[in-house]
Structures
1.
Amino acid sequence: MNRTVELYPVWLRVWHGFNAVNFLLLLLSGVVLHFPEVMLNVLSFSVARILHNTCGVLMALGYVFYLSASYVSRNWRHYVPERQGFVPRMMTQIRFYAVGIFQKGEQPFPATARAKFNPLQQVTYLGVMFGLVPVLVVTGVLFLFPEYAPDQILDRGGIWPLALLHQIVATFLTAFLVGHIYLATAGKTVTEEFRKMAFGEKVRDDV
Amino acid sequence: MIPAPKRGIATAVLLFVVSMVVFPWDPAAGNTDTAGIASVAGIAGGGVSVIPGTAGAGGAAGGTGTRGVAVSGVARSANKGFDALCERCHGMRTMAYHDQRTGRMVSLFVDRQKLAQSSHKQQACLDCHGSGFKVFPHDAATRLETRHCVDCHMEGGRFQRNKFEHIERDFLQSVHFQAMPDRFDCFSCHDPHAFQTLRNQGEIGALIQRDNQICLGCHSTPAGTTPLSKRRFTSLETTHNWLPQVALHWRSVRCLECHTPALGGNHVILKASYAERNCVSCHTRDSMLLTKLYKFRAQEDRQKAGFINSVVLNDAYIVGATRNHWLDRASVALVGFTLLGVVLHGLGRWITARRQKRE
């Protein structure tokens, strides 16, 4: 069969852009709220609070949308690593980023309709979208409605463990964001992956 | 015919004497909140309420010519600070008089349990109250006696370690004293029979609640606030609606944190228009709360490495103030090293790409 499928459907591109803007605003306002004494020239505390709450709610709603759309469109399948030969395939990908990329080598696992992500992307995105982001969203929502947070966790006030978890997860996601944006430049050209995510990419259905 | 007020006083005295016979005084008795005393309580309230302009204690039988009961040398009750004979009347919850000057009922009840936990628990009643109170009924001059905290807590006073002159200076600048100097003194807010210092109070949530209750005693009703403010009474929820998470703030900090100057002076209660509205005064590493609410705890705790404001962390989380040194450093390091790695990797790609282009 010679039909094409869209690797990045419209809903995914819209959500991705929406999530990216939200995350950047959350990152900025979150840093202001956490380090107010060094960041007040950037944004006032009260504005940062409103921004963080608003974008936090939008991100949470966006995540619910993402989960629903992923389920309906079966997009979630791309996140599930194929166990057989997973480690060698991941090592191949790591070797490409460590060595091959400097030698103008080809991506060992180019995106196809069946496997959109390379093994490293699979394991990272799985951890991010189904591990870190839900923790960030849940701790953030509990922050917004502290009356629903546990009164005590490990003999201490219930909010602070949530706060620490929120900070830890946010830090990892920020590091992920840096790596994510950078590796998006590792396509055939520096801007190719950005273009695909903005305008879509049709590939031959190899199923 | 005996005039109504005097008839009330006479009845009160008669019933008090009868009650003393029916329910004789037992020095070993603990709490006097018994059925017998309750019957006296009703009388005391009614009787005292007719005494004009009385500011002193226990005026039920004042001026009736009844022979006094000597209190001096009485055995102490189980509560060291509360002389048993005083407790006989002042241990009744309904012990009160009607202050005709202010139109308010003034309670003369001393809560035995609160006194036992207070900073004054070691004091006997007569350590603070004048010798006139040795005799019951207290005479008119004794009842008019006024005491102030600084009488004892002053340079050269009885309590050298706790000098309150600076508190008095602060209090004189407060909006309360400035607006109504004849109506406000220490006891308008503090009950000397229950007072505990910030240092001695236990769980922070209960401390905050107790402290805020002092303010709410007046500020939650129109009658409490209108004498001082010319504005129409609005609920505290309305006046604080600019504050995010109002309920959480009220549970987590005292009214004083925002309604006194940032640089201390807990007794300089400011006009509402001067109250703190800058979030970052508290929500920062050098939070104002460390010099106010958490003053004593923080001093001990700040000696320890690790958590910034860790004492605050035990009970509450304050955005921007409750932070962990190591976690902050680790967060910055993780993101920093990722950025560095990305920059170096990118530089490597750029250099090799240029070299390959040239070749």
2.
Amino acid sequence: MERHALGLAAAATAAVLLVVFYYPVATVFVDAVFVDGRPTIEPILSVLSSRFYLVDIFGFTAYQALLSTVASVLLGLPGAWVLARFEFRGRETLRSLTILPFVMPSIMVAIGFVATFGQNGTLNAVLGAVGLPPVDLLFTLEAIVVAHAFYNAPLVARVTTAAWESVDASAVETARSLGASPTRAFRDVVLPQLLPAVAIGATLTFVFTFASFPIVLALGGFQLATVEVFIYSRIQNLAYAEAAALAVVETAISIGLTYWYLRYEGRNRGSGQGARPQPRRTLWPEAWTAREIGTRVGIAAYGVVVLAVFVGPIASMVLASLTGPEGGVTLEHYLFLLERQQTGASYQVRPLPAIANSLRFGIGTLLVAVPMGVALAVLTTREFRGRAAVDALAMAPLAVSGIVVGLGLLRGLVFGVEAFGTRIQVTGALAVVAAHAVGAYPFVTRNVAPLLGNLDPRLVESARSLGATRVRALVDVELPLVAAGVVAGAAFAFAISIGEFDSTVVLAEGSTSYTMPVAVERYLGRRLGPATAMGCVLLAVTSLSFVIIERFGGRYGGRGGF
Amino acid sequence: MKRRTFVRTVGAGGVVGLAGCVGGNGGGDSGGGSNGDTATEADSDSTGTTTGTAASEPPELVVSTYGAFVDAPSTSPGPWLKETFESEFDATLDFATPDSEINYYIERALQGVDIDADVYVGLNVDMLIRIDERLDEGLFTPVDDVSGQGDVKEGLNFDPDGRIVPYDTSYVSIVYNETMGDDGDYVAPETFDALLEPEFEGDLLTQNPTGSSTGKSFLLHTVDAKGPDGYLDYWEELQANDVRVLSDWSTSYNAFLEEEAPMVVSYSTDQVYANREGQDLAKHRIRFLNDEGYAYPEGMSVFEGTDRPELARDFLEFMLRPDVQGEIAQRNVAFPATTTADLPEEFAEYAQAPPEAVTFTYDELRDNVSEWTQAWERQFASK
């Protein structure tokens, strides 16, 4: 059994992908190449020959995604450096919470941004207090870019932190003892191990922001419409051929980029020994040399930016949930949640079931996505022809528009297929977990694969020669050494599940398996109180979950090392 | 799948042993397929959630609608309607609220999957056009001689084929904040032309016509005011004057409340809420551009495949009754569809109707609305 465990895991992964991803998506994509039952390339051709679509839409979408990627990397890297290289109280908790922006429903981000960066927002209040002129950030390209950085800088930071914590200190020490300066040692030893992580963070960010939808219209406006806005519009109007053609082109670009990255990742294999992280420095230096002071000023400045971009929007959402209609502190919105819980009818959305469902799906996703992701990571660190292509196909769930996946799940799973005189349908909790896992496992793979690739193959070989099976060697030797990556991947898997909306509403249609983001959406009304209160509940529940995941994962990692 | 034999051996004992993998149409029990696909279809349905005592239980009416109709955080008509209807009729009323609303059922019909709802509440002319464009057979049955239909206001009926009965209507207008002027006396422009004046630059928030009914109504209002040949030029100037077209009503209304801009496209019943919530009415003034408001009636109809046509008709009649019309209007914060609704005095005080209601007919929209919207999208999103 153990002998074939990896193969089985890979086969199971392929089967799940086929049922809850490839088949459903194919039911939509087919509209781009079949019209009235006849094969045609007309829809795709008309997209590719339209100057408006190519330049104004695809060109602009790529441009804003590029800006967003640069902003996310610039904002995420210093965070990774602080988290990986400095020791301070609450560091681990802070590291767990960096993923929080990732689960914020877009409507909450929009609310937080208006309150923070709007004309009467916190930022302008602060600027006014120190005598600076107000800035108007909203409804511009800048607002979209900052919001995308809000979502994705944490991703860059997390992936890079995991890689940084897996750098073997002895390699750095060796370089230093051979006379390399700290800068030189960093450049030659540490940087090569960080670059793949930064590159994957950047690639994922680009793919995500390329398919961004609600944020673009909520903080930018229709003049800044992206591809996804037009896909949504065409699907709303049931113009499936055009929607599918747009989605096919969008996916091709994303997958192409991912493939290109994976070729690069495959060429950059390190040969690390293990993971004995370098000792961290204290935030409060021993001696105040010029260099140390410069470093601390930099960290302080970065702290201010983090306050503005991350803490500001989240804090203003918390504040909104405590504010009454004419200002003044109130708990009425939370009372609304209690009341809805107690008196809500069966067809209404109640907070507690939403919390319970979210947690159930989140834990389920974690349990399914981590083995899936690790199996694929092991597979892709082997050398075989077409590895990058297989890998890129496995990454496809990130590259396909969420709106298209939603429609595909409706056609493919909710409606089901006629077979042997019965209709086979796949809905309910299992389907939701499967759909979430498909969206989540690529994160596990991408967090683990680069680190696995960096391990010295002799570690596995010696374990195998001592009689361990491949799986045994993986679980006992390799995974503990790359625990930072596994834990980061697991946290992402959980976060993806908590934040997922498109597939959840389709698969939980009309039943009682609504989740926290669905509840937030439902409680939106003329006043924002109830929705923001639910949003705060979502944040509280997920924060706690992340801290628990990290603590638990940290213990597992503690078994490894030397 | 050996589901058939499995079902036969267990009988209709309400076994839920398939872990949500097979069957189950969202927990509802449609009591047989409407298209009568196969015997098995009906078979597997009857094992859904029934407990084998179907005969003694009151019949079930499934009413599908949009989420806010049953679940808005302020007030929604849904719960009251269910309670009142069930107290008067021997029936159970169940709500279904698919996220993609009517598109969910159009999609079901397109894919040949049976529909498990009896009535849809919340139809508009846009949806009707989509139904008629995509489906050879209408989704809904013609509804005539429902008592109370004669009381529906002239001009609200939007279906030439008589499948849809309006139950309420809103008017889309500008809502503005008087306190945002330099001396606290901001005055919104009175005409579409005045909206282009430099003094109103960046002052108006509206919504994506594809994702929002207010946004769509405002766009159509400009088509009505400027003509199909002139509305794009008008929008070009509006865009130059920095109009903001945001994703949806909530987002834009929140920005308006945060005083990001002094005007927002919304409903003319805005003060009903403002008054209810004790807000400053000066921050919620209504303006009807060109003295017009764009009418947005909502309608209901009976699904073609319903197996409870009588009960569905009872429900429609119930919805048009004067007392029920008054309740819907107050709880949905909209105007009743009939002339005979029972409404308190104060409703008229805060719910403002336009001097003149504007709306396009079904026929005018059917041939043009997609084209108008798509041309607008292309122009507005050109970088």
